[in-house]
What does this fold into?
Amino acid sequence: MTVAGRVRRESVRMQAAELFEQEVKPPEVARRLRVSLKSAYQWHQLWREGGVGALASRGPSGSRCRLSPRCLEKLAAYLEQGPAAHGWVEDQVWTAARVAMLIGRKFHVSYSVSGATRLMHRLGFSPQVPARRVAERDEQAVTAWKEATWAEVKGPRRPAGATSASRTKQASPADRPEAGPGDDADTPRS
It folds into this structure.
């Protein structure tokens, strides 16, 4: 749920609490606030047991981050150092899988690949995209490769008329031949 969605939901619950205080019944609250009858009854139960405070938001749902703020700062510093500083010398790209492995090595906490992706986004990083170009990148060699090798690998395009098509719409009975291969001429068509 988005932040705006959470704020709206919180506002609706507070409006429901005001209506309950005015002794408005849950079905009427549901109608006025355009919420489900089930939600109105649940909110009414919470309100009866704990008042307005029971309807207050408890914050975003989901599991808490398993790394402390200090560990998150360390992780950001490790990510800034780059993958080569942590043993991945073949390229300078942080992938979510590598970040999950780094978290396990450095903090002894297990993260899934998708969890590592969310954590990277939270820290301002995006997986599998280098933060800056590699220092050794040779722009002239890249341009020459694109012009010569890529054109050869890609190959020529097919001419516009060289495509094939097949009929996918069933022909009308008038368009069908009287007898086709394998058809028995004496058998009527349905």
In short: Helices lie at 3-21, 26-33, 37-50, 69-81, 96-107, 113-123, 139-154. The mean pLDDT is 79. Residues 3-21 form the longest helix (19 residues).
